User: Fold this.
Amino acid sequence: MNNNFIRSMAFISAFCFALCSCSETKNNTTDSAKTTSANSEASAQTLSELSENSYKLVKYKSIDGTNFINNVKRAKSGEYYAFADFKDDFEEKPHIYKISPDFSDIQKIVFELPDEAAKADDKYSNIVFNSEGDAAIYYTFLDNGDMEEPEGYDPNFDYQAFYENQTATHAICFYNKDGSIKKFIDLSTLSDEEDTGDRNFDHLSSPEMPDGDTVITCFSPYELYVFKSDGSYDTIAMPQEYTEYSFPSLITGTDGKVYLSTAVTEQDYSSTKTEIMEIDADALEIKEPSFIEKDNFSHFGSHQYDTGYGDYLFIGYNEDDVIGIKADGTSETILKWIDADTTAMNIIPADNDEFYCFSPNNDMERASLDIYKLVHRQPGELDNVQIVTIAYFGDNPMNYYISKFNREQDKYRIQCIDYASELTAEDYADKSPEAIAEHSKEEYNKLKLDIASGKAPDILMLDENETKLLGKKGALLDLYTLMDKDNEIKRDTLMPNILKALESNDGKLYSLTPSFTVSTIAVKEKFIGHENWTFQEMTDLFDSKDTASHRYDRMNKQEIFSMLLNSDSKLVDIENSECHFDTPEFIELLKFCNRFVDEVEFGDKSNEKAFEAYCMDLARSLMDEQELISRIELCGDRDLIYEKNDFGDDAIQLVGYPTSNGKGGKIRPSYEFSISANSSAKEGAWEFIKMLLNEASDYDVDAGKGADLSCGYSVILDNFNKQIDKMTATKSFDDEGNLTEVTSFESQGRIIKCLTKEELADLKRYILSCDTLFNTLDDDAYAVCYEEADEYFKGGKTAEEAAKMMQNRISILVSEKS
Assistant:
């Protein structure tokens, strides 16, 4: 269940919910404009502005043979210089690439090696180049003396003696534009300087080359080195405050000068500001800041800076936008990523005030790089697009999917409504849990007001309790009404247990999740021979196995209480305005939790042998029956086979959390999406949710999408079956580094086998049998439970008294919210 920004939404109180959507199709007619609400007019104006002033992302071309091009620098003549790594590129000599303005021609520039490189036993080379094609290479030459390192690992070889015997010398080589050597400079004097732990002469850090005769870099956080092609070099000391928060970085401005960018103290140690200062390489000094970005206390943080273009001395990137910095120190927003239908990407300027963006193709069999362009939208391009609004708070985990949806169709456009407010300096300084909770409530109050005044967003990402309360009041659409008319997503195409878990008491579906995991508990089958045990069976097992020395010290009191509390979906019935904390069963649960330790003791890392013994004991504790239960998150691939390995050769049983109704395995939805009942954009909202359901079936993606919907099981039944069936094998790298499918692999000296078809069939049956939710209490109820339980655990009251207080206090909360 998603806790990112909805967990604390206890906003449903004494309001009458008569929701009306702020979504309208943008129309140029006067009559249409008159009929829209104030909120709709603001949204339509936003689309008009987007259509005339923003960018959009379009596919440009693909380049085969490489999956990255980086450190791209644009020359005044229009071509680019860059690093790249082509699959068929086995050139031992250092090189860069010269790329035509439209990326139609890519030429390699190979740099001539100095004679000293051939004499060395080994070498490192750090290339630095500028936008005019000037380049220099900083070399580290290694001399192994009379020792020779073996090609492969040799356990009998004395590696310590080898590296102690090894010596390094340094040089810098300036090059002509064709790659020939212009000047070789022996840096023996640099090699003689003291090489401390903070100063590493083997590698340049953040090097820049303002012209063909100068390289500026740093080997430590405290000083800059300026190398000249005449063989001289000098240092510039950096004040200590420049290095307190981060390693400073160097940037070249469009004026050809090198600047230092670093974070320094703003008001106190809880806040910072970024300063960009010119480096005067001739006077060997750092000038006063030419640009300062104060910490804006936003969710996205400060920008990272790079060389600008046109009138911009620099451009700055963060997850929200791209800004341009002018020579006079003023800044302006160039684009917002979400408006351009993309998430943050590396961009470089192209002609016509456009940009190139790069995205590696994730095909394991074929290295290729996709090139996109950010191009200007045409006036009126979005005139006939219908807005679909979605609420979020600060960091939106759906940005990737929203951008994809907006980019790939032209009928609807998801527009985000951010209910978060930027933190003030005072908010940022006071980071106490109470202050954070109060700030969150203030943000949620904004959404409360919109709901009460009929301006609810079309799509809501709610927690289970809020979904049930809004649905009970008629504020949410029954998704079955859309599903029953859909040709693709229907009731019988989705996981029946998920639908049952999310249904209201009257059989309506007010929310849907793209993916889910199953939270359960495993024990050895010889202890419990059936699924879905009771609380009494669990306590009986703990009582009977008093030789299990770690059964009570691998979790503390609050951890076991949280686990058991979250798993009991009957403690609070928000739809019927009931709670059940004063039962004999719950009182016994409290007493059981009190058996556990107050604090878990971890191994002492300062004692290597003792810590190694602790780790070995921890790894074998289930196998050796020192621990009795193991909590598992079933989410695909290797989770269950690793768990089986932890228990050794004994068979395991998935008993679930202790319950009296035979529903021990618990569903954890990834995110839950609802549609406002009075939305005028129901179809568009449904299309977006459908896209999310299909995206969650894309298992072979990397984690760069923000909300990784594919981490878990797909809610689409056919895709779930395919995912389970594929688990008879897993991918692993062989001895030659090739990724292959295997049915077994080695881990910690044990051979782990993938599940058989019979075991997978049983796993599928088990998952389909789980139809109740994990985590059904809201934050207010959690806070009461933890507070009262903690007082009991500390001896301040009895279990009966704690349970009674929970019942009384949470009954009031439930009554107020219902």
